[in-house]
Design brief:
The structure is a homodimer of 436-residue chains. In chain A, 45% of the residues lie in helices and 11% in strands. By secondary structure, chain A is of the alpha/beta class. Chain A has two domains: 152 residues, nicotinate phosphoribosyltransferase; 205 residues, Alpha-Beta Barrel (nicotinate phosphoribosyltransferase), CATH 3.20.140.10. In chain A, strands 5-4-9-8-7-6 form a six-stranded parallel sheet. In chain A, α4 crosses α8. The termini of chain A are far apart. At the A-B interface, α1, α9 and α10 of A face α1, α9 and α10 of B.
Chain lengths: 436, 436
């Protein structure tokens, strides 16, 4: 007879647990949040900022798919999570972007006491109204966990009606699909690709699987993950620099049209003072790339690279290259980081297009960590990723705005958007569908 | 903190076990073996028969892929397996082919004491020489477990160098591939398909997964499994009737040319006396279908159906239909069971070809339970199924022969094959590649 092992304790635990927590570590967030957090903590400690959930896929009625009680339970659990000793030691001892002690001891001491602030939630017209009010240092840290929680609760809801066999087939297909992508990417010599998929992931475990698939499958070409926890646990590079929230808050606080026009460059100056080096990556599209480039001071052309984040990659990349050339710079010394709506086809086409003309890196998000299209045995549209973001909407009570190169990605009060458009103009902005 | 469950006892068991047994039940065999066994036990209890392993894929040097020590350990373990009470009760109490008590109490009492007989093994030119000598009642029962053991040991050897991640991708792809097949088969209304894949399976667990995939995926169209254990455990029909070994032994024992020519019909007479009903399925190709049909007594046309097993399905099926029509029978009252080298394309094409003209059932073997082509992350030809059989080679010391409709599937001493060809002729026999 063969000894059949069954762990009774595990079985009992499984059927008695109250909650399967989605956020189990404060490091389960994007690295750029920590980089920005240190800057906010050093330079803008007293600023208040409100972050708000925005579901750009309005056809999906989130509050009908996800139970608000479950959502509260997950948000509440995330608020109980603290930095562990091991995590603090790793942040202090690890090198990031080749630099030791990128985080100052005082900042880490403050972070050790950090907890996520309260939230405000309601339901309206089938959507959640989810706001985070408070100090910018606190509310900024909700962006990624809030998105990860909602996306994973949505996946769980989608899979609730599925039997064990259907789930098995679902994940088998998703793995097979992911591996096809890995095999195609393996063909590109000298590729640099990172995981940027935390916020839109199907689930934490699935993101971890995808990260390990890239690690195993494309080796050196896999240059890191934006997820700090996964970077720590898998000895990977943590990657990411900064986001739209910095120019958005700077502009909101500036109040005058002139101040708004200068906000983006002021961010770069502050960033440079704090970090510099490889971390000098320009995110040009907050208020439109064309306006950004037209008024950019000379020194912006000295920065390491650009991250065009809302134009199609080839068009957006060509625009930056042209500008570098106009400024007398050689694009081959520069890097373009693509991170908007990438999938394997886009990555391959973009790579082939720019090969030899500029250095490139790809920050692969939703289609890496949440591509379950056609994977369910029975059609299940709920497993399709949606375009969900968590944006700063106010700073010290003043409205915050993002224009983007794609008007569909604009956020903010319509009248404020009008005002910003008068300041920046709308040249080269073009509507594109936003899937993810 | 989240409670992490680890079963220490399981971990310890896993790293201390001596053997992961492949054959854990005497019912882990094909149903037709039990049907034939009862007939052999009733009518030919004193006949000696030798079964021999034959690797038709001679390019694969089995003895270099599989360690003879491991093979012995598995064969030895299989010899320790006995019918359990639960199994005996199920065989007695279950209905097979709509008939209660198909197995007689005396036979089941004998089977309760059954153990697999000894084996004789050697290595030569990179192949195993594996023989089972003894009573036909005993040696016949080695066919399926011997093949299942060797095929699974070969899979294990193929996967030995693979890491946990590679294995994960391998099975994910195999599952995804299998599910594509399920979805294609689902399109055919009124399909009848059974699992015939025990002997060539990748592993027991994989066969079980495939069977459950069919159960879940095509529902009513999945009419059963030849594997008795899987039928019992999953409340499926156990299917299968008889095999070439019956006419082969009958012919060997007959000795005279006339006796050899009549052997096949004699088998059918005995079979009919014992079983009848839905179990009246003719296997016509042991010594060539053309000869079989030409000399068949009238009553053969009254049988329920035919299982053409070595001609291409459409050609083989048309041949039988033509014969039924010549005999004045309506093929729509008859059934054709296809079981040779099927895959989804063959099944669909055959189904479409005969739709409405004859009833059909498909016994799906190797390509159901051992299709790992292109599933490994790194190319791994060792995972490709081979054409391995275990055939009766002698009866009471006399040579046994199979001609088949495909000369490449012929077995036996070349001089004996010559003799049989003189008796039966070789019309309509045509060489086809044998993959599985």
């Amino acid at each position: 007879m063969v000894f059949r092992v069954l762990d009774i304790a595990k079985r009992v635990h499984d059927h008695t647990w109250k909650l399967d927590p989605i956020i189990r570590s404060l490091l389960d967030t994007d690295f750029y949040k920590l980089m920005m957090l240190q800057m906010i903590w050093k330079m803008h400690r007293d600023v208040d900022a409100t972050f708000t959930l925005i579901n750009r896929t309005t056809s999906i009625r989130l509050a009908e798919e996800i139970d608000i009680g479950e959502l509260r339970a997950q948000l509440d659990h995330a608020r109980t999570v603290r930095l562990t000793k091991k995590e603090a030691i790793w942040l202090a001892g690890n090198s990031f972007y080749g630099r030791k002690q990128i985080f100052e001891p005082d900042f880490l001491a403050w972070l050790a006491e950090f907890r996520l602030p309260d939230y405000e939630i309601a339901q309206k017209d089938g959507q959640f109204e989810l706001h985070f009010h408070g100090k910018w240092t606190d509310t900024t840290m909700w962006e990624i966990p809030a998105l990860a929680i909602i996306n994973e609760l949505r996946s769980r809801a989608a899979m609730r009606g599925m039997g064990p066999f259907e789930l098995d087939v679902l994940y088998a297909r998703a793995k097979a699909k992911m591996w096809e992508k890995v095999e195609r990417l393996k063909q590109l010599p000298g590729l640099s690709i990172s995981d940027f998929g935390t916020r839109r992931r199907h689930s934490f475990l699935w993101q971890r699987w995808c990260v390990q698939a890239l690690q195993e499958g494309i080796g050196e070409a896999f240059t890191g993950t934006s997820n700090v926890l996964l970077a720590m646990d898998n000895d990977l590079e943590a990657v990411g620099t900064n986001a739209h929230e910095l120019p958005m808050v700077y502009a909101a606080l500036a109040e005058t049209d002139e101040g708004i026009a200068r906000a983006n460059y002021k961010v770069l100056e502050d960033w440079n003072r704090l970090y510099g080096g490889n971390l000098k990556i320009v995110l040009p599209d907050t208020f439109g790339t064309a306006a950004f480039l037209r008024h950019a001071p000379d020194w912006v052309a000295d920065w390491t690279g650009f991250r065009p984040d809302s134009a199609p990659p080839i068009e957006g990349g060509e625009r930056i290259i042209r500008w570098w050339q106009e400024q007398g710079r050689d694009p081959r010394d520069k890097i373009l980081i693509f991170s908007d709506g990438l999938d394997v086809d886009t990555i391959i086409n973009t790579y082939r297009h720019f090969e030899g003309r500029v250095r490139m890196a790809f920050g692969w998000g939703t289609n890496l960590t949440n591509d379950f299209v056609d994977c369910a045995p029975r059609r299940n549209d709920q497993l399709r990723a949606i375009s969900l973001v968590c944006k700063v909407t106010e700073a010290n009570g003043l409205p915050a705005v993002k224009l983007s190169d794609n008007p569909r990605k604009a956020t903010g009060d319509p009248r404020e958007i009008e005002r910003y458009l008068r300041i920046f103009g709308s040249e080269e902005r073009a509507e594109k569908p936003v899937y993810v």
